[in-house]
């Protein structure tokens, strides 16, 4: 049995600086301690002219090979490659162009399949084994800048969303890449952006937003939570921190038994309203298996995060059984990559 610290490291995905790991002793140590995964970004959010982890196909492939070489178990190497405006691998750096969900939904199924097979093959060739896609939010709020405004939704009709999301998932699966349905329980009706602050969808959310999850969750091994507040489901907490959303609804009612990963816990919808240790406690106890710190909006020290997690377990605010359950799900996930 791994020691407690190893179990906790496995429950983290982090962002890091640099296009190689040669001088990143902190990251190397984190990975050697059992870090669950990393997420790659093309540029820094506060300076889009400065590249962060991605320079060229050759460089990314070399970086990912280096990352895996120092990890005892398979490292989850993640990216946001939805297509269109949410694509970390860009044409100007030598990567294949990727169409947006809106553009994909205008194609015949065979053409959509070809697009997604090309995308998935490229990810596999680069050594990326987890894509935070497909986005299955319904494009029902035309005022949404973060979903509808960026052409990230396949449409407002759940059948259309399910059809094209399934094509994407099949292509990823064919290349041993983890697909991630997002953002549970639905972000498409939200007007606001949870990167920037509190987003309340109580009045706009509809149960139809659960349909893609009901139809696709048995085909995926990972789902990402949303930071939206939905008083129809939980009157106290946003979805990422909500036991009612993540355990009662997603696990018990819908029957999902895969890995639940949080969206970036540095987003202001969370960070503005909850202290870090409280966030960790609520997220894990809500049913989240992996906590994500992208280190784009701020910088969180991983050792500090682990110390907080240790403190919460040692003080019985998080049970060791919950930690073991999360690790069991993560280990099952790793078997397929």
Automatic annotation (TrEMBL):
Enzyme class: hydrolase
Superkingdom of source: Bacteria
Residue span, Glycoside hydrolase family 3 N-terminal domain: 23-333
Catalyses which reaction(s): Hydrolysis of terminal non-reducing N-acetyl-D-hexosamine residues in N-acetyl-beta-D-hexosaminides
Alphabetized UniProt keyword annotations: Glycosidase, Hydrolase
EC number, as in UniProt: 3.2.1.52
Record's keyword annotation contains Endoplasmic reticulum: no
Pfam family for this entry, one: Glyco_hydro_3
Alphabetical GO biological process terms: carbohydrate metabolic process; peptidoglycan turnover
GO molecular function: beta-N-acetylhexosaminidase activity
Gene3D superfamilies hit by this protein: Glycoside hydrolase, family 3, N-terminal domain
InterPro entries linked to this entry: GH, Glyco_hydro_3_N, Glyco_hydro_3_N_sf, NagZ_Beta-hexosaminidase
UniProt record similarity statement: Belongs to the glycosyl hydrolase 3 family.
Protein name: beta-N-acetylhexosaminidase
Species of origin: Arcobacter arenosus
